[in-house]
Amino acid sequence: MAQNIVVIGSQWGDEGKGKIVDWLAEQTGGVVRFQGGHNAGHTLVVGGKKTVLRLIPSGILHENLTCYIGSGVVVSPEALLGEIDELVAAGVKNVEQRLKIAPTCPLILPYHIALDQAREASRGAGKIGTTGRGIGPAYEDKVARRSVRAGDLADLDKVAEKVKTNLALYNVQLKHLHGAQTVDFDEVMDKIRSFRDRVLPMLHDVANTLYEKNRKGEKLLFEGAQGTLLDIDYGTYPFVTSSNCLAGAASAGAGVPPQMLNYVLGIVKAYTTRVGSGPFPTELFDDIGAGLAERGHEFGSVTGRARRCGWFDAAALKRSIQINGITGMCITKLDVMDGMDEVKICTGYTLADGSHSDILPFGADAVAGCTPVYETMAGWKEPTFGVKSYDKLPENAKRYLKRIEEVCGAPVAMVSTGPDREETIVIQHPFA
Ligand code: GDP
Ligand code: IMO
Ligand code: MG
């Protein structure tokens, strides 16, 4: 039996992690975010009502559940408080009391956002297509050892000193490198003073609490953001995010020993999507891709940008399964593929030098040189939307799932057939 589960995105993000985390959260003693920031957009639908979470863990709709933000997350206090207020306005109770934040979290401040946006504008056609939320610059500050961390808020003089030093560096870049508006010291400090009193009470020794909960036998759920192919090390670099999105990152990012990560649930969309720039071997530019985008409502939950759509890429999944140690897969959005005459699975690539690979190479240049090799299967005409048991799935849909298992080399533990919490099929319960 698995006591703790790490849920990660196995492709380029937006696989449906939020829905599954919300579904699994019921049984747990806490849900923990361990990387990323409010670049994430995790959609939950409960009884037809939609909630989009960006920074707050996807367990918050469960009334008595405590949610944790670990040290690996870059926190925008402004975005955090805005999200809390939205949830409270929607009737969610005690959000602030049920949210615990590691004091070691680096903060995202206005100069990170200004830099992110100015750099993207300067890159022109070569832009990464970031969410513009300041994520990259905030992680840079962390490794450069100049972050203002959440715990620093207790000492405003210390914060002011750090902000001053950072602005001296960044305003030169903003003005002279990018021809952009500089960021005013007093405005940053006013902003910090405006959120400080609400943020300080949420600070908590997250690592210690998680350790103790685990020792008492409580189940924990670690919620990944983004996806493996956006990972800073192993993704399509430089078209990636600025954190490690792998299951292993849950250990460092939440502050728990790796032995606590008992089960890795890889969330896998039944086809592939990507938002932002960068190579995408199975991308479709025809009516089939447009159909997936339309039926799957493939528009970013954070930025509203259209997501690029393509066939299922089993060779990319193979990479994901290996580097995350995926115990079981949850295939989401199967219903979006209903009604197609045929469906394709990419089983490998012809590389730029003419050789064959059955696994996605690393980095944007190598991936850009991949021409997919497809296997074609018959589609299914019967609807899978809302189906709640595996037996009731159309035969061809089952064949598709079986073939994915065979090519990728990991079992399908769950299938999602609609956005609602209830539209879920369990084959092998990850906690069982
Ligand atoms: P996340 O970032 O991985 O949490 O995924 P997003 O929430 O950004 O994107 C997933 C989208 O698909 C959301 O709009 C979900 O409501 C929706 N969704 C999740 N699972 C299913 C499913 O099985 N079927 C359908 N049709 N929609 C789903
Ligand atoms: P969830 O958790 C999909 C993408 C951006 C861009 C790249 C870098 O909802 O799956 P960043 O702002 O992180 O510096 O942008 O990463 N990206 C995502 N794509 N889902 C996400 O999160 C993403 N978070 C970042 O589009 O290409
Ligand atoms: Mg998303």
From TrEMBL:
PROSITE patterns referenced in this protein's UniProt entry, alphabetically: ADENYLOSUCCIN_SYN_1, ADENYLOSUCCIN_SYN_2
Binding site for substrate: S301, V302, T303, G304, R305, A306, R307
Pfam family, one: Adenylsucc_synt
Role played: Plays an important role in the de novo pathway of purine nucleotide biosynthesis. Catalyzes the first committed step in the biosynthesis of AMP from IMP.
Binding of GTP, residues: 13-19, 41-43, 307, 333-335, 416-418
Catalytic activity: IMP + L-aspartate + GTP = N(6)-(1,2-dicarboxyethyl)-AMP + GDP + phosphate + 2 H(+)
Pathway terms, separated by semicolons: Purine metabolism; AMP biosynthesis via de novo pathway; AMP from IMP: step 1/2
Protein name (Swiss-Prot/TrEMBL): Adenylosuccinate synthetase
GO CC terms: cytoplasm
Species assigned in the record: Conchiformibius kuhniae
Residues binding Mg(2+): D14, G41
